[in-house]
């Protein structure tokens, strides 16, 4: 809570000192081009469809998925996106949504966990594919900035850490258990709160899921393509947001802002990267030559489409599912 208040105070201070430049944000949002807003809406639907494809194809890699399962899996995917947005858990919070979707369709829990771990893994790899491809294009065009390189280095470090955890889960589960305990104690020390107790059953479940995923790496290709589509659509959503408020049409700049916003959201202290993602995207756009008010308006529009609307819809999907019977 103290860290959250500190971040809020910093953001409030920045906003106050830049209030003159930010005065036009409301005007830019009010004048947003409705055609680009419509494009943004279509892209949001495509983004949800891509997330559904990530989870459905990942699950299909470990068990049989029928066409009749897809509506429930879609609701689970939308709910998982929302849960992962508000719960800091290295992307594992969404497993609860997919587990419930699997139980409703009578799918084995172990296979659902394996499919979810595969989906979580390819989500990082899909972003890495977009990041590397984009950096190659930006570098060839002489537009790669220090902010881009910093964001790329941070994300690469985080991805490497997750790969190490997966390898430990398969080959050294006891080491993973000790490492998890050390991390939880460190977290408790830093945040000055009682240490969380890691459930050994969860460790065994993740070990089994990781082993299932690593036995047949070829099954990762379809969900990897879908995960790549998620981030490509995310870049297009930011580009549409920028165009809607009169910021021009620059996919390269949108890519830089998207990468920085995504990495800032991961390392930010607040759930969903609130504050950090907005600052990251606006900073990248401003460095790219976009006026601060326009950059702020584009960032707010993007975050409404990419975070707040999915959070609201996913939250409703999660809440509605709690009242329905589960298949036995």
Characterization of the model:
This protein is mostly helical and 328 residues long. The chain has one domain.
What is shown here, in short?
This protein is an all-alpha fold. 78% of the residues lie in helices and 0% in strands.
Q: Sum up the overall morphology in one term.
A: globular
Percent in helix: over 70%
What count of structural domains?
Answer: 1
Main sheet overview: none
Taking all Cα atoms into account, the compactness measure Rg is: 20 Å
Q: How many beta strands in the DSSP annotation?
A: 0
Helix-strand string = HHHHHHHHHHHHHH
Q: Which class of secondary structure composition applies to the elements?
A: mainly alpha
Give the DSSP E fraction (strand runs of 2 or more residues). Answer: under 5%
- Calculate the terminal CA-CA distance, rounded to whole Å: 41 Å
Task: Enumerate how many helices there are, as a single number.
Answer: 14
Oligomer: single chain
Low-confidence stretches: 1-12
Rounded mean pLDDT is 81
Key descriptive features of the protein:
14 helices; disordered N terminus; mainly alpha; single chain; 328 residues
Q: Any chance you could write out the topology, listing elements then pairs?
A:
Layout (H helix, E strand, L loop, with lengths): L1 H16 L1 H4 L2 H6 L3 H27 L9 H17 L8 H10 L4 H32 L5 H26 L1 H19 L8 H16 L5 H24 L6 H17 L8 H12 L4 H30 L7
Helix pairs in contact: 4-5, 4-7, 4-11, 5-6, 5-14, 6-7, 7-8, 7-10, 7-11, 7-12, 8-9, 8-10, 8-12, 11-12, 11-14, 12-13, 13-14
């Amino acid at each position: 809570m103290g860290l959250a208040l500190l971040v809020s105070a910093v953001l409030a201070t920045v906003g106050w000192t830049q209030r003159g430049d930010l005065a036009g944000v409301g005007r830019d949002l009010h004048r947003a081009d409705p055609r680009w807003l419509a494009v943004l809406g279509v892209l949001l639907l495509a983004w949800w469809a891509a997330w559904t494809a990530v989870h459905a194809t990942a699950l299909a890699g470990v068990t049989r998925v029928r066409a009749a399962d897809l509506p429930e899996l879609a609701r689970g995917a939308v709910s998982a996106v929302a849960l992962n947005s508000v719960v800091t858990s290295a992307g594992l919070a969404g497993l609860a949504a997919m587990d419930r979707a699997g139980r409703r369709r009578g799918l084995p829990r172990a296979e659902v966990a394996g499919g979810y771990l595969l989906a979580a893994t390819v989500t990082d790899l899909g972003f890495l594919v977009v990041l590397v491809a984009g950096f190659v294009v930006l570098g060839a065009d002489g537009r790669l900035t220090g902010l881009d390189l910093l964001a790329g280095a941070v994300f690469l470090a985080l991805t490497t850490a997750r790969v190490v955890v997966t390898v430990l889960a398969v080959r050294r589960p006891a080491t993973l258990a000790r490492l998890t305990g050390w991390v939880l104690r460190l977290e408790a020390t830093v945040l000055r709160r009682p240490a969380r107790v890691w459930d050994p059953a969860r460790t065994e479940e993740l070990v089994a899921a990781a082993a299932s995923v690593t036995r047949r790496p070829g099954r990762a290709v379809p969900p990897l393509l879908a995960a790549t589509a998620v981030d490509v659509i995310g870049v297009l959503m930011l580009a549409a947001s920028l165009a809607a408020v009169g910021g021009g049409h620059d996919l390269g700049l949108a890519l830089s802002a998207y990468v920085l916003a995504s990495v800032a959201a991961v390392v930010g202290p607040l759930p969903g990267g609130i504050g950090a993602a907005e600052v990251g995207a606006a900073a990248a756009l401003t460095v790219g030559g976009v006026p601060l008010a326009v950059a702020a308006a584009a960032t707010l529009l993007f975050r409404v489409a990419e975070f707040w609307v999915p959070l609201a819809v996913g939250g409703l999907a999660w809440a509605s599912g709690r009242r329905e019977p589960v298949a036995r």
